[in-house]
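Order emerges. One example.
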Amino acid sequence: HVQLVESGEGSVKTGGTLKLSCTSSAYFYTYNCLAWFRNVPGKAREGVGVVFIGDGSTTYGDSVKGRATISQGAGGNTLQLEMNSVKPEDSGMYYCAMISRTSNADCRERFRRIDFSYWGKGTQVTVS
């Protein structure tokens, strides 16, 4: 089974940039679907962004559109998240998740349903 580990600075100043990385035990390939989710206090778990490796297409959650960017890092087994103009309400637990084999359409639908096969343990982010 795939193991995912999130990393990055836990404290970010309001208005600054959040940068997180997810390292996978398996190298990414065409049919992979990878995403960032978050748990913000007082809100249900929500999708931050998702990428289908096959064509590199991305979709972002409504709360972060225009501020967040997800991309593949060097080495072929890392996923990056960069979020600009962070606010205190962006504080929470951020998770990396993966679906090993799927289609572009299914990747996006499962992102909407928050239905992924593998999950990291999460990393706490505090914006102040």
